């Protein structure tokens, strides 16, 4: 006799963890550390001041696209999504709100607390990845909102003695930062005192050292002229926008949504055909971004322009396809050479895989660890009081630290010494990642 109620079907098995996803995420973390610390020495690698893309501009879109892939592979309940969103946002506020350990000081000024940042943007994209219409809203607001003239009360890191007038009265101003709809909305919601601005000061109109800043260590020949304030536009002093502003954050949802689509391809397409599908998608996205850029819709990270989002998403998908071919496609056992190559690639990339499995851990510690280490420094007293030289010169790490000056000073230029220091720092973090992987120590949010 058959039972009246059939036994409940078992839940579908979870998809296996993708080594290629962790490897690309780990490479992105390593790239983040690299460009953060080497950008001062090599400005062409640092974030673009406005239009155009650099190596540093590839980090954030890669994180967002990989977040989308993870959403598709492991969708969460509403409670889990809300909990993770809040944790990401609060951790981002802790690290980038303006009061975390750095420059031998800490403490949060609630008046200037910065509400937006990298992790906050990822949290927003994670929570709203299903809202595919936000990119259209971003484009509509960017190109239709009227931006009136305004006065800047803040600039060059502080309150200005006299307000700086900024002439606008335009729509669709995207070729320079002072009159964008993105900046206007962010100032209106959070106030000018909560903006974090450092990019536009490196533009050609604002700095003779463009695309870098004046730096006595790395560019001693580039001197800020005495009449710089008179010769450059008034808006160069203004805090006009935030790199992680509200309106561009709407555009980041496209990056997350494209990542979700990549993850859905993984679930729907046979494993051996997946690299071809990913390569076609990545090539199409990157080509579309280049075509839009050539047509006049310039790639711009600060505005998260459509051309920038498509190009960077395509590049990340192509990297995923390449990594998948290397480590996730298991060759037939009889193909011994291919099997050995696959095992060798997996072993060679294991440190990056370990770093990718612990991305939040390294995001937290890559700046915090150096700040804590540099809290111990050597600075002998000076005659008449004070200390003989700045504390940075008595610290262990950093641009002026003992390691760069004495351990790597022999390599030649200050920029080359900084490069050696950064590569050593990344190697140390990769070693820590391998130890964490060995003992299954992972930070989860």
Model description:
- With 445 residues, the chain is mainly α.
- It is 51% helix and 4% strand.
- The protein contains 16 helices and four strands.
- The protein has helices spanning 19-38, 59-73, 78-96, 118-127, 134-144, 181-190, 228-231, 246-268, 274-294, 306-327, 336-348, 350-357, 359-373, 391-394, 402-407, 414-438, and strands at residues 146-147, 150-155, 158-166, 170-171.
- The strands form two sheets. A two-stranded antiparallel sheet has the order 1-4. A two-stranded antiparallel ribbon has the order 2-3.
- A hairpin with a 2-residue loop joins strand 2 and strand 3 (158-166).
- Helix 5 runs antiparallel to helix 8 and helix 12 packs across helix 16 (414-438).
- The relative contact order is 0.14.
- The mean pLDDT is 79.
- Pfam families: HGSNAT_cat (PF07786).
- InterPro entries: HGSNAT_cat (IPR012429).
- The chain crosses the membrane at residues 88-106, 250-269, 276-297, 303-327, 348-367, 407-436.
- Residues 17-101 form the Heparan-alpha-glucosaminide N-acetyltransferase catalytic domain.
- It comes from Prymnesium parvum (Toxic golden alga).
Q: How would you briefly describe this protein structure?
A:
The chain has 445 residues and is mainly alpha-helical.
């Amino acid at each position: 006799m058959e039972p009246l109620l059939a036994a409940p079907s078992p839940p579908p098995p979870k998809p296996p963890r993708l080594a290629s996803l962790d490897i690309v995420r780990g490479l992105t973390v390593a790239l983040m550390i690299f460009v953060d610390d080497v950008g001062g020495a090599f400005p062409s690698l640092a974030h673009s001041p406005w239009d155009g893309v650099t190596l540093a501009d590839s980090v954030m879109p890669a994180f967002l696209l990989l977040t989308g892939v993870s959403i598709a592979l492991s969708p969460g309940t509403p409670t889990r999504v809300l909990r993770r969103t809040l944790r990401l946002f609060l951790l981002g506020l802790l690290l980038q709100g303006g009061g975390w350990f750095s420059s031998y000081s800490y403490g949060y000024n609630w008046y200037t607390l910065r509400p937006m940042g990298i992790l906050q943007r990822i949290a927003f994209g994670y929570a709203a990845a299903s809202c595919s219409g936000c990119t259209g809203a971003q484009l509509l607001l960017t190109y239709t909102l009227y931006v009136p003239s305004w006065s800047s009360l803040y600039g060059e890191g502080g309150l200005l003695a006299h307000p700086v007038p900024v002439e606008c009265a335009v729509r669709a101003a995207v070729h320079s930062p002072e009159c964008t709809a993105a900046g206007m909305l962010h100032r209106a919601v959070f106030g000018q005192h909560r903006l974090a601005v450092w990019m536009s000061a490196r533009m050609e109109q604002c700095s003779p050292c463009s695309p870098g800043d004046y730096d006595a260590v790395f560019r001693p020949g580039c001197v800020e002229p005495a009449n710089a304030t008179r010769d450059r536009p008034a808006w160069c002093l203004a805090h006009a926008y935030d790199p992680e502003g509200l309106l561009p954050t709407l555009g980041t949802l496209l990056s997350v949504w494209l990542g979700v689509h990549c993850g859905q391809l993984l679930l729907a397409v046979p494993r051996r055909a997946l690299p071809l599908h990913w390569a076609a998608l990545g090539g199409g996205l990157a080509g579309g971004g280049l075509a839009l850029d050539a047509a006049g819709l310039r790639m711009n990270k600060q505005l998260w322009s459509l051309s920038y989002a498509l190009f960077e998403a395509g590049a990340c998908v192509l990297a995923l396809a390449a990594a998948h071919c290397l480590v996730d496609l298991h060759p037939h056992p009889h193909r011994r050479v291919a099997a050995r190559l696959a095992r060798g690639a997996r072993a060679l990339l294991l440190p990056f895989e370990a770093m990718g499995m612990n991305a939040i851990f390294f995001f937290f510690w890559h700046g915090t660890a150096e700040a804590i280490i540099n809290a111990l420094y050597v600075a002998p007293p000076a005659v008449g009081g004070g200390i003989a030289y700045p504390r940075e010169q008595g610290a262990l790490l950093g641009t002026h630290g003992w390691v760069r000056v004495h351990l790597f000073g022999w390599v030649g230029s200050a920029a080359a010494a900084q490069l050696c220091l950064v590569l050593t720092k990344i190697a140390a973090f990769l070693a820590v990642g391998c130890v964490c992987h060995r003992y299954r120590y992972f930070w989860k949010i």
